[in-house]
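Ops channel
N.P.: pipeline sanity check, posting one input/output pair.
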């Protein structure tokens, strides 16, 4: 069962946040499984699970992930990836993933995952990408039958601590006309900069395939710099520690005066999107330099300074969340209203890896949906 409330209303005008059209840029396939699906796939595959009740298993994931450490947080994925080693399992997970996005009001989602982590039972890299795409297509059809219009794109991810970057980049390019829209690197960030995969990024640049890079989550400004200049990242996965490059010069009763360092200036001036994930950033300790509550998150500072901020879930299972819930939490913390929410979604639409005409159509869908709210 999904224990996340499906309806949150915005204080003031009472808008149903779940019904608003949304764009999801940073959402991991292996972090969005339904607990009941894990139990059923684990039983079929002979994989041990800590509990066999779906509600209790959901709570187990949230508790284990709430560690204050990205390394500890990532250990919860040992179980989810273990049940995603067959074509049938991958297709089911992808199908349900899209169903859940559509039910949450998402009209476009870019879904990232690492094919190299799904080969334990003999599947090839190409076979796992095809299995996931089959599930995504089925999920889109299911959503359409339920009256929801949704599109998806795969972000093929390489694990930054491994040495398969170029191989995975080539995989992404092979499938660019069959559902793949971009490339990412993920995993343990500290000690594994984007520069380790420079050959892969050079290849992708030559093939004109866009890139987002996890950076500024478990490591600081140098990791972000490497993502931008070694990885040629058009978006930053999380990027929350970019706030380390901001200096508050002075404050008065009405204003805060902030100076931007060179990396922050580059990101803002070029409108490089920040894929911020508030709940996840709390769980992994990404914002510990500023505090340990959502009100301490530099999201609002970055927003007020004109950065292209977007709102994301990262891993809906581990964070026991949804995009609707993340927006509601931000509204509670910072007093955001419907206009702010529309800005976040338009920011995300502009930052997708869709062609320009499609991005403009997506922005119009968002505007129309918010006009009707």
């Amino acid at each position: 069962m999904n224990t996340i409330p499906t309806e949150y209303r915005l204080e003031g005008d009472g808008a149903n946040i779940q019904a608003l059209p949304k764009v999801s840029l940073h959402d991991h396939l292996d972090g969005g499984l339904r607990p009941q699906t894990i139990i059923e796939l684990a039983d079929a595959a002979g994989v041990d699970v800590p509990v066999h009740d779906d509600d209790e298993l959901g709570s187990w994931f949230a508790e284990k992930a709430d560690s204050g450490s990205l390394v500890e947080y990532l250990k919860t994925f040992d179980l989810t990836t273990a049940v995603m080693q067959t074509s049938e399992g991958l297709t089911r997970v992808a199908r349900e993933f899209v169903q859940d996005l559509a039910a949450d009001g998402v009209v476009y989602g870019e879904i990232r995952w690492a094919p190299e982590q799904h080969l334990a039972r003999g599947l090839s890299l190409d076979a796992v990408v095809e299995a996931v795409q089959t599930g995504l297509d089925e999920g889109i059809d299911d959503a359409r039958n339920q009256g929801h219009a949704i599109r998806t794109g795969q972000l093929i991810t390489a694990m930054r601590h491994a040495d398969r970057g170029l191989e995975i980049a080539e995989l992404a390019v092979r499938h660019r006309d069959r559902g793949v829209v971009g490339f990412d690197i993920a995993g343990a960030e500290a000690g594994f900069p984007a520069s380790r995969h420079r050959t892969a990024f050079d290849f992708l640049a030559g093939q004109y395939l866009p890139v987002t890079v996890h950076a500024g989550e478990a490591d600081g400004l140098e990791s972000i710099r490497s993502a931008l200049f070694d990885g040629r990242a058009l978006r930053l996965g999380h990027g929350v520690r970019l706030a380390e490059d901001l200096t508050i010069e002075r404050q008065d009763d009405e204003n805060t005066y902030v100076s931007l360092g060179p990396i922050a200036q580059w990101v803002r001036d070029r409108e490089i999107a920040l894929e911020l994930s508030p709940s996840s950033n709390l769980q992994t300790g990404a914002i510990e330099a500023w505090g340990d509550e959502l009100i301490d998150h530099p999201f609002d500072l970055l927003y007020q300074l004109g950065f292209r901020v977007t709102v994301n879930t990262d891993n809906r299972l581990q964070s026991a969340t949804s995009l609707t819930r993340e927006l509601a939490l931000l509204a509670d913390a910072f007093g955001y209203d419907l206009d702010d929410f529309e800005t976040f979604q338009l920011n995300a639409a502009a930052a997708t890896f869709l062609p320009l005409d499609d991005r403009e159509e997506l922005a119009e869908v968002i505007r129309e949906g918010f006009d009707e709210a």
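N.P.: looks fine end to end. The longest strand covers residues 151-159.
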